Amino acid sequence: MNKLSKNRCFNECVENSVKNNWELFALCDYKGKQYRYKDVATEIAKLHILFSESGIEKGDRIAICGRNSANWGIAFFASLTYGSVVVPILNEFKPDQVHHIVEHSEAKILFVGDVVKPTLNVDKMPNLKAMINIPDFSLAMSREEKIEETQSNLEKLFVEKYPSFSKENVCYYKNENPEELALINYTSGTSGFSKGVMIPYRAIYSNLEFGFHVLGSDTKPGDKVLSILPMAHMYGMAFEFLYEFCAGIQIYFLGKAPSPTIMLGAFAEIKPRLVVAVPLVIEKIVRKAILPKLNEPAIKILTKIPLVNQLIYKKFRIGLQNALGGNFYEVIIGGAAFNADIEKVLRKIKFNYTVGYGATECAPIITYEDWKKFAQGSCGKQVINMEVKIDSKDPLHEVGEILARGENVMLGYYKNPEATAEALDSEGWYHTGDLGLMDKKGNVFIKGRSKNMLLGASGQNIYPEEIEDKLNNMPFVLESVVIQRDEKLYALIVADVDAAKANGIEGKEAILEQMEKNRKEINNLLANYEKLAGVKLMDEEFEKTPKKSIKRYLYTNVEI
Predict the structure, then answer these.
(1) What's the CATH code of the domain at 539?
(2) What is the pTM of this model?
């Protein structure tokens, strides 16, 4: 097993992994190019020459914006091990957002993907020295002749610098100070504001240490994983990319929109040792492949018979495991709220899943528990190097804000001292904005976002996510958002039109009638102050962040 750095240096971990796994495959595009660790080292060395000749200095910002790919990973490691500050930009961001982030971060170089590049206007990024194409590392734009000259002679310069190419002379990466800035990660939250989270090396090292602590004995060099989540988002970056690379694991990048057909085909072929997912992916699979069969009359009868029900549940469990490749230790679910009813199904069939919790500001992990000890409905316990508490007089029964403190916590928000002061208090606690409870064993249970909390007519706290969780399990409801109007609650609903049609419910009026039935039924399950006064059908799915959380702020003023 690969070992962590004795000096707690992240770049040393990268260097050690490259040397220890020299001949193993490292970064691979699914159905595309494949790099061994030694090939990654070669490409990193070439980019280091380009950076040096281009006048890039330690601490300069290098931005990366493109779809997940092996070359994205190489650009990332080349930038970090050179001593630059990496600015990962989500591929889904609009051009104006990309322009703003590049300028706000003061990036000198932008690695750009083939889909993003045509949408950008270089005149709106005047401080860039160059743009480099991610697919082949060619120059997309340069404002200096020296950069063009270096790029055209890069192979020659590489041979001159490394006449005898070996792991000993090509792999020497800059060690870092733990408090030194490593990344500026611009969030894309549900509130609509993008802030540059300053992540120090200690935070990414601590997350790496967590990975080895909880997964090191269940993964080994040569294992495989499938990277689906955006690499520019801390969840996907930390646990589908950084940990795996430093553990000698072969990473496949899907590189395209993860449709169920493409994704399940890739799982079957790659057979990943670890599956990292957002709730939406698992919920879709369970709703389409398991729930309809579990609800068949004959199956319902059989599941009431002792012993027979366990055989049936085992069959469903193996079927779901095989759909995800059949070789994984566990499925780690995170990034958004997980549907309680779907979780009950997974628990019933004894599926090996767990739910973690984190934030970009903690790079990202805050709580986790191994699937064998995981408490249903929770998001685990505080992880190593971190403290977690509930800001409440009675954390067991009284909801309070979730606070986190420790090595994973950010330095602050870039050029935004006001937001930093709001998020980090004088004792070093990061105020997550999430509300929760904590049981006597330390398991954390999230109740909702503090910004989303609504107040009932008599001052009761209403957590719209809890209502939505129930509503999303009603017939033909695809997704929902609960909003408030004059102390009354209304549900905005996206219907599963195809499923409704298959059951003889067709046309807007018929679907609306069904949703009205759903409303009356769910009101029987809710407290008086939580009851829904009405529903409104939405024509399109809700707009979401890259981690598939609904951008709620876009819908708070929808006309009812």
Answers:
(1) 3.30.300.30
(2) 0.86
